[in-house]
Every structure is written in C-alpha cells, then in structure tokens.
Amino acid sequence: MHRARNAILSAFLATGLLVAGCSSADTANLPEDAQQLEAAFVQGKALNASFTDARIAGMKGIAENELLRLFINEETGAIAVLNKSGGEIWHSNPLEAETDPIATGVNKGLLSSQLKIDYYNSFGQVNSVNTFLDSVAYKQVNYESIDSGVKVTYKFGKAERSAADLPLMLSVARFEELSGKLDKAGQRALRIGYTENEDKAAYVRNDQALNGLQLDRAFKAFEDAGYTQEDLEKDMAELNFTQDSPAPRIFLASIEYKLDGDSLVVKLPSQEIQSPSEYPVSSVSMLSYFGAAGSEEKGSIFVPDGSGALISFNNGKTKYPAYQQAVYGSDQAMERVENAVNEQTVRLPIFGMIRDGNAFLGIIEEGAAAATINADISGKLNSYNYVYPTFNVTNKGELTLQANGSERTLPKFQEHPMKSDYTVRYAFLTGKSATYQGMAEYYRQYLESHGGLPESKAESGEEDLPFYVQVVGSIAKQKHFVGVPYKTLEPLTTFKQSQQMISEMKERGIANIKLRYAGWFNGGLHHQVPDDISVDGAIGGTKGLRSLASFAKEQGVDLYPDVAILTAHTGKGFNEKEEASRSLRGVPSSFYPLDLAMGRRDRTESPSYVVSPKRVGTYVDAILKDMKGFNMSGISLRDMADQLNSDFRKNNQIDRTESEDISIQALNDIREANMNILADGGNAYVLPYLSDITNAPLTNSRYKLEDQEIPFFQMVIRGKIDYTGSPYNLTSYTNVRQYILKCLEYGSGVYFEWIHEPNYKVKDTAFSNLYAVNYEQWLEQAAHIYDEVNGVLKKVQNERISSHVKLGEGLFKTVYESGTYVIVNYGATNATVNGLTIEAEGYVTGGEQP
C-alpha cells in the first residue's frame, strides 16, 4: 500500500463521472485497482425467507436451530437474533436510530451501520466509511445464503469525482499562470470555481459553485492547463495545506453471520477487506451497536479491564472519555509514550452486555491480538449504551526525512495487513446466567471445551494456599577502582542464602512455597539473551544452583528459575540489527527504563530492545537444552505471558497475530518438556500451559467511566491455575488489612519480593524500584498475613469461585463451589448483612449462604 504519487491530471481523467453500476466502458477509465474493486462487487438477488415472525417486522428469517433464529433486513443490512427459550430479541442496530434526539450527521448514520472502516489518506490522516451512509444508501449490498446463516458483502463509496478532488487553494501566481493557458471558457470556469481570499493571499476553492456542469468545466480547465501533482505539492507547501490525491475511495468488505448452538458467530474474512492502494485500511469496527441499551433501560456493560469491570447504563458520566483498551496491552514494537502509564492490561478477549434477565457475552475467537474493546454510555454521541470490538488491520508509523536544513514527516505503513480473520462469538444468556457471574462460568466452560485451560487441580481434602516469593540473585552495578568506573555483579541473594530463607519461612509456618529465582544467569536480573545459559558465579555458580534445586525438592518447595525471552536488557551477546524487532520507522525497537520519581522514561540510561518473535523458538530450545542438567521441574517466564510484540522488518514482517502463534508454539515446547510454568500476566492464549500466574490482575484501571471492579479473571481460572497479584511489599497498599481482604475476596495467594542483603545495596543502580525488599524486614509480617489468609482459603484452595456479589459500599461476598463463603468489609465502620456483623476492615466466613 503506497501513497498516491500519480499526476493529478491523470487521476482526474481516470476517475470520470462514474456512478455505482457504471458501464464497462466507463469502468475501463478507472485506475487498475479501482477497476478490480468495481469488478469484485456484484449485486446479488433477494434472499428467500425461510420463515417470518410478527415480532420482527420487516425482516426475513434466514436460519434457525434449536435455540436461536436469525433474521435480516435487506434494505438496511441489519440483523436480529431471537432467543427461543425466553423470546428475547437482540438487534444489531437500535430500532429507533433514525429518531435519536442526540445523534446527528455521521453519528446518526453509525447507529444504523454494521461495519465502520477507518482508512488512511496519503498524509496518514484517518477518514472513515460505514455501511449505512456509504453502502446501503447507494444500494450497494449483496446477500448470499450460507450454511446456518448469511453472508453480506458491502461496497463502500462511489467512483465519482467531486469538488474535493480539485486543489483546495491556488496561489495568486498559480491562478494567473493557469488562466494564461486557458481560453475564455476555461478562465471563466476558474473564476467561478475559485474566489480570491485577500487574507490568505490565495484563491480558495468555492465548493458551493462546483457541481454538475460547472464541476465538469473546472476539471477540463485544469486538464487544459496541464496542472500536475508536482504543481499541487508546491501549492500545498507554499500555502500550508494538505490534500488527498483524487483516487476513487471504493472499499469492499464482507461479514458472515452464522448460528452455532446458543451463539451467533460473526466473521470478517480479512481477504475480503479490500481498498485502493492509496487508502490502506487502518481498522474495522464490528457491530458497534449490537444489543445497545437505551437511556431508560437498566443494566451494565462488562469490559475486561484488568480483573474485570462494570459500567452501569446511563451512569451520567458524560464528561469522561469512552472506554477503550487494546487486548493484550500495547505492542512494544510500536512507538511508545514517554510517560508512565498506570493501567491494567486486558488479559481476556471478551466483552458483554447485561440486562434484566438477559445478557450476551462477546468472545473474540480470531484476531484478538489485533483487537481493541470500546464501550460508552448514553448521553454523549447518542442515546445508547454500547460495547464493541475494533480490529487493527494496518499499523501506521512516521518517517522523518531531513534535507537542506528542512525536516519533513511522512506516514509509514506496515508492509502487509494483519494475517488473520476477525471472528466474534455472541453467546446469549438468560435468567440467573444473565449476570457477570454467569458470563464467567460460560467463558470458563467455553475455554474448557476448546482446550483453553489446563486440567483442574487435585480435589483431595484441604491444601495450603501458595506463598509466592520472588528472590533476586544479583544485579549489575557500577563500581569504581582507583577512580576508574567498571561494571560488576552485585550479589543480593546467593543460592545458599536462599536455602536459609526457605528454612526461616518454614519455621514460621509458611507452607506451599513457590520460589521464583530471578537474576541467576548471564549477568544478573537484566540478563543477556538466553541463547546460552551460564549460571552467575557471584551467587554460587552451577554447583550452587544444583544444591538449591535439591534442597527445594527435599523441602517441598517449587523452584522456578526466571527467564526473560522477549526483552534484551543488555546489548552484550545481542545483535540488535539482526535480532531486535524493527519499528515502522525501520530501526531496532528499543525503550528506556522508567524513572519512578519523574514518572517518565530515563534516556540517560542504556535502552533495552524488543526481541524479534522469530528468535523466540531458538531461545526456548536453548533454555530447555541447558536446563536439563539442573534437575528443574519448573521455569518462570517473565514476559512471554505478558507481552505480545510485532516485527515490522521489511520483507519479513511478523504481526501480532503471528507473534501469538509463535508464543503458543514455544509454550507448548516447554510443556512437552514436562516443566511447570509460572508466568507474569496471564494473557488468554497462554492459560492452557500455565501452572501459576504472578502479577495477575487483582483490580481494574479505575477509569472514571467504570462503576465497579469485579474478579471476572479469577472466576474463570480459579481451580485450574494458581495465582497471585503484585508483591505486597512493592504495591501501593499502606494498610495490610486491605491487602488481606483483597486476597480473601479474590481467592489469591500471598506474594512478596525479597533479597537477603540490605536494601542499600540497590542504591544508585538501575534497580532502585527494589527499595524495600530485604526479607528480614518483612518475614514476620509475611508469616502473619499468610497464616490469616491461608486459614480461610486452604479450605477452598482448588475450588472455583461460583458467585461474587457487591452487598454494599466496600462490602463484597465471594462464594466458592462447595458453598463456603467469605464476606469482606473494606469500610472503616462495622456492617451488618442478614444479621451478621462484619467488623470494619474485617471479614466473616461460613458454609451455605446466610
């Protein structure tokens, strides 16, 4: 996809005055790709109705199964799904869209659209077309019956030129130059089409006068005068304006609707998203108003922000931005913001809408790595509450050129669109299942049936809650000898000291210890890439590691040596030109560490590099080979379950969807080597391979639009995967009671990060974030926290969360599948529930619900 650089005269001649359904003679005058788009769309015949329903007037019934019926309106492209069990009807578009009192212009058209395509012009600016205003309005829709549903193909736009295809402005000199080349008729056409603006010292296009025959005369005038693309670029530079080249803006896209059991499966085949080469597609938004709820309805929107969040319908927060988050977080190969971003990552590719007695859960089955979840409330752009996915098709970066002391920035697009279709399953829930608890149970069962979760944990009696501890072995530190600076490894916790710490933890009653050992090979915590493993001698070397592994096994401690695979923190042994991902600017992707005090990236430090996904398999093979001699049964992955990055290397691009497949293959290789995997984050595609998750989301991002955080993530994975949040001693908790209550409410393990040496050893290093990790300062408190949390959760350690409900402000009840419950009170005063008093910052437990 390249920027338009053909002569504007040629484009004028090629475009012609064409309309939809133009003749073959007219089509022959179009540019080649426009001809292909015209030829690709064929107006189909009307669908035959298989059935009708008086409740869905004006729509044809086209598919049904035991649970659902699918209808379509051939005039608008709108669809509806009837749930037979309860009679609930889900519409793709609000029925009262045309009379919405708030929406105007394009926003009103979007209410009746099924797809919106955002595309770039030659300057990298984003424009959009939608199915209602740019396809249905011109009757450019084709319907085709398919198995269990229907396929709808849209042609967006018309191949006809408009005033916008003429230069926006002409300098006075340019106007006089053109006039001198024209006869009286051509001069008159220019005078009508352009009016002099003395303030701008230019002639400005008069769009109101440029229509019909006068528009034709204006185009002929430019043709006769020989106006070219080079002339246009000179005028843009001189008069400081930008403008597209006048290539036809014709797009094609298809959407498939199929019934599958209790769900509607909606698919956008990527190969059928077609556009002119001058206008690459940026993104596609699917069914933006499916199931949209009006301003008088009650319910909530479910969004997968962190652990999960609810946005209440019509909550009145119209001054706050809409919800928008990328699934699986940001792509490190893209340009990143300089400031620290304090938000949770979307780990699960889902979203939903909850009404009284009815709900739908959207599950992104294909293209999740390219998806963004959007949601908003009524009273802003329109009168509806809605949630929907947008799929990224083509990324854009910027390329800066410098010449003769001047600087120019041009858009740089990724070489090929995403190599993935985009598919969403809309599952319909009724009755007691039409809640976020019901959604979590449905999604859990969906993952189980599709191999998306590991086998359940053992259910034999009580089992101690995991106590997670990350121990840091060594870090790189700059020292001085006779005034000469040099870098060396600073040991913070040797293998022998780790054994001592394990013994002290067990003496204090801490059980089921899961020890993640970071900073043990290839140069400490920010180790060199793991293409070869050399255990750091500063903390005990190979012999020390084997001794620790043997001791841990004897003590019943799970040991997980930690490895970073997707990030190269040091350039030593790493060829960034060959092994780093390339950004869209064509340079190795790098980022600088965050300065916590300043809240932005510190460019005085050395950068880290984003490892190309193509290197992941090689690194994993090397790790598995070298770790065989250490008798390890587990491994900790610092970033593979947390990050998902592209590589925009020319002629060898790897997009996010392909990168996901590479990570899955690497994880499968580790599992086949019979190693348990503990990992940070927990993106959905890694869940089948994990035994434990650290830094799992225990909250949402607390965006202003959101109204309640919920443990949706935990309700999906508990009983399958053990998990914990961030290390307590490095979190923002200032009150230990609040941390204990969060662990109880979310069924989470306890987590600390420790070193054996004093805290001052990290001073004046790149690891100042380890400011409070000396284990002696925390050990007693950690034992008390663990004792209290384990005393409650060991009874339900391998059980799923069957219910979670907000009872009042700061008051929450979690019920486990055996019926055991815990009610927590985050408030500063006592609370009473059904005769039970819950003390301030306290909790009560019991058997069946009170």
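Second entry:
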Amino acid sequence: MRKLLALALVSLMAATMAQAVNSPYIARVYDFMPAPGQFVNQNPAYQPGDTRESINAKVEASLCGTVNGGPISLGSYGGYITFGFDHPVVNKHGYDVKIYGNAFQSAAVSDMAGGSCEPGIIMVGVDMDGDGVPSAGDKWYEIKGADYDRCQHNFEVTYYKPDENKVKVPHERWRFISDIEYVYWMSDDVTIPDGYVWRNTFHTQPYWPLWIEDTVLTFKGTRLPNLSVDMSANGAGTSWFQPFFGEGYVDNLPNDQEPGFKIDWAIDESGNPAELDHIDFIKVYCGQLDYCGWLGEVSTEVCGAEDLHPDAEPDEPGPGPDDFTFTNGIIFVNEDRYGPNQGSINYYNYDYDEMEYNVFAMVNPGVKLGVTTQFGQLFGDRLFLVSKQANSSEASGSTVGSRLAVLDAVTLKQQGSVLRFHESPDSVYDGRAYCAVNNDKGYISTSGGIFVFDVPSMTVQGMIDGTQSSATGDYNSLYRGQCGDMVRFGQYVFAVQQGRGLHVIDPVTDAIVTTLSFPNIVTVFVTAGGNLYVANNSREIYDYSGGPYEANFTSIDPVTFSVKEVHELGGAYGAVSSWGAWRARMICVDPHAERVYYSYDEYQNYISCYDFATRTFTDALITLPDGVEINWDGTVERQGLYSSAISFDPHTGDMVVQTTEAAPLSYQNFNHNWVLFYDANTLGLKRQIRLQDAYWFPAMAVYPDVEAPTVSIEEQVIGAGREQVISLLDAVSDADNMSSLAVTTAVSGDENVVRATVSGLELHLVGLTPGRTTVNVTTDSNGRLASTSFTVTVTNVSIPGDVNMDGEVNISDVTRLITVIMGSVLCDYDPAAADFNGDHTINITDAVMLINWIMNN
C-alpha cells in the first residue's frame, strides 16, 4: 500500500516544512458565501460587475498576510468563509490556530462574561485528494466547542431573495427597524416559526449578496442557542448583552482572551474524535440565528487567523489507515473464495497503474465483510455492500461479517452494518442488492423479500408488503421467489422478483403500486436515453438442455407501466439468468448510446451487444484474450466473464472488463484473474492487468463519484391553458452518472400562475393564469443534489398564431408577426403564439408556417 495518495501527501508536507519558513497568517481565501445580513455588500464592498471570484479576491486582500485585518461579515446563520495557510497546520496537541474577531467585554456589565459576541462554528478540512483546494474528495470535521452538547446539530435554514421594491413593513415600536418582512427564512425544525432577517435604517443597501444569482440559499450545520438579552428600558431594543460561550468558537471572546482552538477537538459526523495529524483548510460559519434590536442580526465577523506554530513538523509523518482515500481509481468488489475467505475489495489506482489488494481489511482492522460479497452501490457519501451470508456458519463462533456493510465512500471505513435483515431466527435471508432511494433511505433485496433500510440509524425498518417469498433459511428455499436487481427511476423504484415479475414501488410510502407479470424475468435496467427495460429468459444459468428459450428485452413505460415494445432475441441470445446462483445484473448499459453489452452464457469468452435503436444483435462483438493454462490439446485456455463483469469508467471513458480463466474448456482456473481496458469507441484492447493469483471471484466494479451534477433550464413563456414539456435528459448533466437516472422534483412559486410536475423524465409546465413566477427544480443524481430556478411567464392568449391577441388567427396576425421580426413592435403581442413552430425563436419561419396554416384552415 506504499503508493497510495495519502503517503505522498504526508511526505510532501514533511519535505515542504523542512525547506521553508511558513507564514503564520492566512494565505488564501477559497470561498466566501455570506447569508443575508446588514453588512453584506459592504464588508467587503460590492461593485457592479463583481463575481464570486472577484469578491473572494477582495476578502483575500483584506485578510491575508495580517494578524488582524477585516472585519469580514458572514451575515446571518450559516454564512461562511473558507481559507487556508501556505502550509498544512500540524497538530501539536495544544492550541494550534487562533482566529480573530471583534467581540468585546461589556463595560456596563463588567462582572459578567459577555458583552458583544457573535459566535461562529469552526470546521477543519483535510486535502484527501491532494488537489490543493477544498473539493468533493476532501474530508471535513467540526471543532467540538465547549458548548457542543447544548447545540442543535444538523440544523438547516433556507433564505429567499427579497423583492427590493416591495412595500416595507416597519416595526411597531423600534423606529430603527424599517422592514420586519425583508428576507424571509424557514428552517427544517418544525418547532421554530418561520421568520425574517429584518432591515434597519443604518444599512439601506440590499442584504442579499448581489454577486450571487441564486434566489434561494440553504445552509446546514450546528446551531448555538440564542442567549442574547435586551437590557434596555421597557424593551427599547437599544442595549443588548450577549454572554460569551466557552472555547472553540470564533468572534466569541475578545482577541486578548481568545486562546485559539486545538486540532485535537476535531470530531467526525458521529461525534467521535477525528485524531488528525494536520489540517489543510478552515471554514467558519455563523452559528446563531438571532436578532438583537438596533445591533441587527447576529453575524460572525472574521478579522484574520494565525497558525500558532507555523514551522512545526508532524509528530508522526507515516500514513496510517485513516490517511488513505479511494477517489482516484476503481473499487472492485469481490465475492472472494467461499469458505476460506469472506468478501473483499481491491482498488485500482490511476496514479500508479497498479492494483491495491484487500483495501477494506487494510483500513478496517479487525472488521470483516460478509461471505460472498456480491453487490456494491456508491451513493452520495457512502458505499453500500451486500453479501449473501454473514459467514458460512453463524453458529460456529468465528468472526461474523455483515450482510449489509455501509462504508465511507472516500475512506472505505465502515460506518455501520446489518447482520440479519429480520430478527426471527428462522429468517436468515441471503442478501442480494441495494437500491438507494435517497441519502436517508434505501431498499435491500434478499432471498426473502425487500427490506427498508434507514441510513441515519443504520437499521432495517421492515419488509415491503407483497415482496415476501417462502424462504426460511434452508438451502432450497433461498432460490424460490427471491428478489434481485432494483433501479430507482423517475418517481418509482422498479424491483425484480423471481417467477413473479417487476414490482413498481412508491419510494415515499414504501408500498407496491403494481406488479407487472414476467414469470421469466432476469433483471431490469435503464438506458442512457431514459428507456426502462426488463430482460426475460426462460433458461436458467446452469440449464444445458438446449433451446429454444424465451428470451427478450421488453420496454416498459415508467409512467403508465404499459408494455411499449418487445425485442425478441431469437431464443438463444437472452441475457443470462442467474437465479440458481444469484449474481448482480449481468448486463452493462452503454452510457452514451441505446445499447447493452452482455454474455448469453456463463463463462463466455465473448462479449455480445444488442442495439435498441437498430434492433440488431451482434454476437461476439469482442473476443476476450487468452489465459495462461494449456489444455490437453495444446490450446490456451481463454479468459471468461463472471458475474457483473462489464462496466464503463465515467472518468476515463474506457470499457472495463473483469475476467477469470474460466471459459468452458477443460483446464479453467479461477485462480487467474485480469482487468481489461477497452477503448469505448473502437472497442480495441488498450491494456490488461493480471491480478495476483487468488480466488477473487470478481463481483462488480464501483466508480467514485467525484463530479457534481448540474441542472439548467432557460426562462419559459407559455400561453394560458397551454402546456410546455421540458426534457430532463437535456436539462440534467452529471459527468459521473447517466442523467436518465437522476431523480428530479419541481415546485412552482405560484400554483395559480403555473403548475409544475415531473412525470418520468419530463417536466410539465401548465400555464393557468397570466402572470410571472419562479419554478424551483432540484435533481438528485446518485445522492448529490443540484438545483436551479427559472422564471415562467404565462401570457394572456393561448391560441397558437394569435400574435395580436384578438382571439382570432388571420392575416392581421401575420402582419403583426412580420413587424415583430423586423423589430418595429408598436404594441403588445403574444410571444408564445408568435413562436408558431415552438423552437423558442421568432423568425421568418414562423411567419411562413402561420401563412400556410391560415391558407389551409
């Protein structure tokens, strides 16, 4: 494991410290994102044309290279700044970093610790991916302040951009408050009423960050309790006392009383000590949601920061299990050898073009996976692994692994596990697959049914009614009515059950909507073009009695659940059915075209292809290379496919194929294994890696999710009573994942103006009454969220071609349309009707089409 990235990082850190004298002050501001507040657009000052980058540069100029610059205001709760030094900060197990604010002791209440303090929460980051900037591959930890136990954790607040021209609502008593309904906010805590960031007479500029185009801002983190007291006579709101909190916060104590914080105080999401050797980044965010009369909202100020030992060297420069990350390569899940071994993970490292072996065991000392680890899904920040058994004999007293293991997606450290899916001792169901519903819930398919898994508590919540089988734990019952592959697509989860068909499950209610009968179902999958298919094959994997067999791909409408079309496969070329010894989906979907790759026979040394667009099957599209064993007749054994052997690497574009020397000849040897890399365009073999000899029985490849998704929709114009349909395939983009698998929701800002609904992969907008509103769209692509907002204008007239809005379509509309095209519009017109051909552009083509329509009608 000597070549893993963390070793290089720590070595580089030690070398850098030995050669240079480091600055103790901030060297780089990576990001500044204030929440709405009275000093926003003032500290620093916004100028027209400023961007996020230019504002960051202004903040950097104010804070860098000085012990106490600024102040930089973070706005209301959640507003943050992220910065770093010109070197990693070493943990010396004392006070390591001091962050300066502008808190002060009250002279009026000198016998009490407090006065003016606006405490901020501290986060520290470690550059896990080595790119030198905070990014998705890094790990963040909270500094556990002295008042951590009385804080509210995982608190979320959302702010909505105000209309600067709205009518102000002044405070009934406090004349210095000009608008008590200025910036609306709401939290995820139902016990806290929604509120506003008030506007005062001292700061009249917009409180929303003007360089940010978003109209909605959401912040999440730890929230300190509100302790501020109005000490003015008769509640005049002009004299406030803010008690100091304990250590571990920013802008909480006067600078001459502030000792700083210790890296030893860093904790993970579960509250456990992080035990960090060093940190690379620091994030500070406002930790209170409070308002203090004429002082305004509580808003943390940052004036600078100092590394208290800038030239210190690390105590232990060598890497340990917590130093390794797995975001720059391929994670290979292995069944491993049944009996002697439990499941395992190997990791192919891009940087060194090498395979690292048994990495799960390396980063999880003393912990084991279950037996026959067959399935892996990386979703959000976690990797879910499903094994068939906990171990070969749970009563043996040997080390018991888990049927479901939940790992950190970056470090592969185990976060939780499930030994059994049901408490009853006669219900020892085999694990099959995992399907994430969202970051908080998933479904586990088993030989006995489908179970609901609650991710935050790491517990099984029960079985989905209607998915039960007759399995009780004995060998024969494990292979009757078992549930297998699942896919979250659109508004539903589609799940396969042996001998029955395709369950359509509502992921909100966890109830079956309907079950489509497919007695010979094998698997279910979604193509890049957003088409849902069921693979059927009446032949079991070990049935060598000869054909013909029923074999087809059946297309299903994901909204109506009706059969769209059936692609017959000639009886002999169906996707392999593995119910007799279940394995994860043995079909690979091309992420860029409407086709799939698979083998129609176990251990087949060919890869075949079916193209849905042309309805053609290509046999032996790829012939796998030779192995190494020599057969009795002098021929060389061939490499063959096993389990979910084919996949596409989203980062390199390669087709990746896992093989074992197991083609159906005489000297097959499962001890020999390879990984093959094919050019995705030419299908030519680029290179192959032979693994260390072992009975890996490779199950499937899992790819780190390092790119964030995006969703983008342009402004829309719709006539009243008309519907606009937007393809979400075009709107959503994700370099790591197919956009067809993203789950999108839409909310109309005004349901009286436009109705917004998502059906399948389409966003439907229905214009109801003339007006203008915003539609907010959120997409969940593999556990990572992206959102956008766009405006929708609903026009007065809804008749296509009625450009002049007189309720009729005639030659006067053509005249008006021509004047619009020529740029001499003298009065109102209906842009939805003017765009006659619906291509979002008004030009001479619309006039020609309108004339033809009038002449023909």
